[in-house]
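Q: Here's a chain of 114 amino acids. Please give me its 3D structure as tokens.
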Amino acid sequence: SKFATLHDFRDQTFFNEHDKMYVYMPGKILTYTIFAAYDFDDRHLLNCFDLSDDTVWAEYVDIVNDPTAWSGFKRDGITVTTEDKILTLSTCHDWNSSVRYLVQGVLIDDQPTN
């Protein structure tokens, strides 16, 4: 229930109107542009993809850049590269336990705070 509001991104208008995520950390604020929101299978991403492996990371970036590979939305004009930093928020699907719902953003700003 903590991330249930991520399902709001299933609505095209909501997705179009909400394009930023902010992460407040001690000493800085990270700003991400939301580039995708979609259904994904129930795999735990960090357990299934060794993202420290450059080849696996490149394959994963290809997955998130391919809007035909999943059911959801991808923001036009944003292509994620292997040089980017991605934030993925994940929640249970509202009716199918074998599916997760992901909202992903790409880091665009890292501002120090006082």
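Q: Can you summarize the key feature?
A: The chain has a mean pLDDT of 87.
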